[in-house]
Amino acid sequence: MDWKIVADSSCDYYKLENNEAGINFESVPFVMSIDGIDYVDTENLNVSELIKAMEECKETSLTSCPSPDKWYNAFGTEKNVIAITISSSLSGSYNSACVAKNMVLEEEPDRNIEILDSLSTGPEMCLVVRKLQELISQGLEFDEVVKKIRNYMKTVHTVFALASFDNLVRNGRIPKIAGLVAGKLKLWGIGIGSETGTIEVKKITRGTKRVIDTIVDDIKTRSENCKSVIIAHCENEELAEKIKEKINEVFSNIDIKIMPTRGLCSYYAEKNGIIVGF
């Protein structure tokens, strides 16, 4: 099968699950720079060491998106390539991928390459990759896969709960006041990925029970017929399991997967953070 799915490492997959169709997959890594040390977001990254470095950070930290060359190489030689990136409102990864697409098509104009701006990150991107696998496995033509996946992307959402907003604030991803309120008072911040791909902090609360209830209420509000949920956690599997239990109480016949965040999502979610795609 001459297909390839490419995602930047804001998608928490290292490889495809249940890949009976043999679809090729590649992850293009972000780089997290902390106190002058680069942490490349590959499967070899020790996320616990990354988190420890963040907690001990004394100078500066930042992230760098994949360059066009990285994307160019990742597009490989397959006839049909679909790439998905973190929200273009949060990173330059989408623009880099588009530049790489143009580079490839100048050399090989008969190839099919589509770049999807997820308007999100993490587990929501994993849901999109899952759907891509399903569509490609049906034997659909490239244009039909693109049409159907873009329609599907309109139906999926993200809600998150963070105990710290430090890195989001430092890197200009949310207003400073939101980070200060949550960080200083030791509260949880609950937010969503907006329809335009920005981060919106919706509620500041205390205690994991309220966190769980707020997340489940958001899922009920924005997805009445929710069938698939991915819960990504940054070293907080206990809370992820409690969220899963609550979702199972509310929805029937629902598929729920719990997974750890990779490097980039760990950097922004910070320790104990939860990101839910549904």
Straight-line distance between termini:
29 Å
Strand content: 15-25%
The structure class reads alpha/beta
SSE string, helix = H, strand = E? EEEEHEHEHEHHEHHEEHEHEHE
Mean pLDDT score: 93
Gross morphology:
globular
Q: Helical residue percent?
A: 25-40%
Number of strands: 13
How would you sum up this structure, described in words?
This protein has 278 residues and is an alpha/beta fold. The protein is 39% helix and 25% strand. The protein has helices at residues 47-55, 68-74, 93-107, 122-137, 142-153, 166-170, 176-184, 208-222, 237-250, 263-269, and strands at 3-8, 24-28, 31-34, 37-40, 61-64, 80-85, 112-117, 158-162, 188-193, 199-205, 228-233, 255-260, 274-277. Strand 3 (31-34) and strand 4 form a beta hairpin. Helix 4 (122-137) packs antiparallel against helix 5. The mean pLDDT is 93.
Short précis:
With about 280 residues, the chain is an alpha/beta fold. The protein has helices at about 45-55, 70-75, 95-105, 120-135, 140-155, 165-170, 175-185, 210-220, 235-250, 265-270, and strands at about 5-10, 25-30, 30-35, 35-40, 60-65, 80-85, 110-115, 160, 190-195, 200-205, 230-235, 255-260, 275.
Q: How is this fold's topology laid out?
A:
Layout: E1 3-8, E2 24-28, E3 31-34, E4 37-40, H1 47-55, E5 61-64, H2 68-74, E6 80-85, H3 93-107, E7 112-117, H4 122-137, H5 142-153, E8 158-162, H6 166-170, H7 176-184, E9 188-193, E10 199-205, H8 208-222, E11 228-233, H9 237-250, E12 255-260, H10 263-269, E13 274-277
Parallel strand pairs: 1-2, 1-6, 6-7, 11-12
Antiparallel strand pairs: 3-4, 3-5, 8-9, 8-13, 9-10, 11-13
Helix pairs in contact: 2-3, 4-5, 8-9
